[in-house]
Design a protein that fits this description.
single chain, alpha/beta, binds P1-(5'-adenosyl)P5-(5'-thymidyl)pentaphosphate, about 230 residues, 5-stranded parallel sheet, globular, Rossmann fold, 5 strands
């Protein structure tokens, strides 16, 4: 017997690329690049355009995925293996997609998500050095072809990003990594932007908040609102 959740997930899959589907925007970047700041500004602006998006984040977005997030960010779990970290990230994503993102998109609602699978390629692939093919296999299994319509990638020097992040709060399990880790994360993100330029818009984040917000609006307008 099908449950409500499985019916909505099935409907979501069948209309994944359909005409009435909502738009899916993700925000990406290294630590302290300004994603969360810009996400709030973007959502305010979209609402002013008459679009009321579902706002969510990864890891997280559902009750179980938020618990996985807490586990992943907790510095007490410093010994967590890279493979376990990768599987936990995708376990959280599977829950998030099935219960939250896919039903919203299928219902025609826009979704704005703070980080998604590009973060896995950047952190677990670039940062931890895990084999790309293993991430691709999990991506196929969990996402079944679903990709963001637009990814806003905020690029900032590692030193500036960490200084911003550390000003704001105590380092979590990822923020406790060394500079070389974050340089690999940044390089992996830059490679994604080059490889997927039709989806990813790289935004220089070493500008004022207002200037970065203007670049975000220009990108969303041009790529998702038909240049209106
Ligand atoms: N992760 C996540 C993985 O390893 N794999 C995965 O697959 C996924 C999905 C999640 C962690 O999980 C990892 C990556 C992460 O380490 P997070 O909270 O999403 O954690 O990520 P963080 O990078 O830690 O988020 P931050 O909140 O630190 O960074 P943001 O959101 O990029 O930055 P923001 O907006 O909070 O700004 C930071 C500070 O800078 C200021 C802000 O006021 C704030 O104080 N600021 C500016 N200052 C000057 N000029 C500007 N233009 C500024 N914009 C913001």
């Amino acid at each position: 017997m099908m449950t409500t959740a499985s019916i909505s997930a099935t409907e979501a899959r069948s209309s994944r690329q359909g005409a009435g589907r909502g738009r899916f925007i993700t925000l990406e970047g290294g630590e302290g690049a300004g994603k969360t700041t810009q996400l709030k500004r973007l959502v305010d602006w979209l609402q002013g355009q008459g679009i009321d998006p579902l706002v969510t984040r990864e890891p997280g977005g559902t009750a179980a995925a938020e618990r996985i997030r807490a586990l992943l960010l907790d510095s007490a779990n410093a010994e967590l293996s890279a493979d376990a970290e990768l599987l936990l990230v995708f376990a959280a994503r599977a829950d998030h997609l099935t219960l939250c993102i896919e039903p919203a998109l299928a219902a025609g609602r826009w979704v704005v998500c703070d980080r998604f699978t590009d973060a896995t390629y950047a952190y677990q692939g670039g940062g931890r050095g895990l084999d790309r093919s293993r991430i691709e296999a999990l991506e196929r299994f969990v996402q079944r072809g679903l990709q963001p319509d637009l990814t806003l990638l905020f690029d900032l020097s590692v030193a500036s990003g960490l200084a911003r992040a550390r000003q704001r709060s105590a380092p979590d399990r990822f923020e406790a990594e060394d500079l070389a880790f974050f340089e690999r994360v940044r390089a992996a993100y830059q490679e994604i932007a080059e490889r997927s330029s039709e989806r990813v818009c790289l935004i220089h984040a070493d500008q004022t908040e207002a200037a970065v917000a203007a670049a975000v609006k220009a990108s969303v307008t041009q790529r998702l609102l038909g240049g209106a």
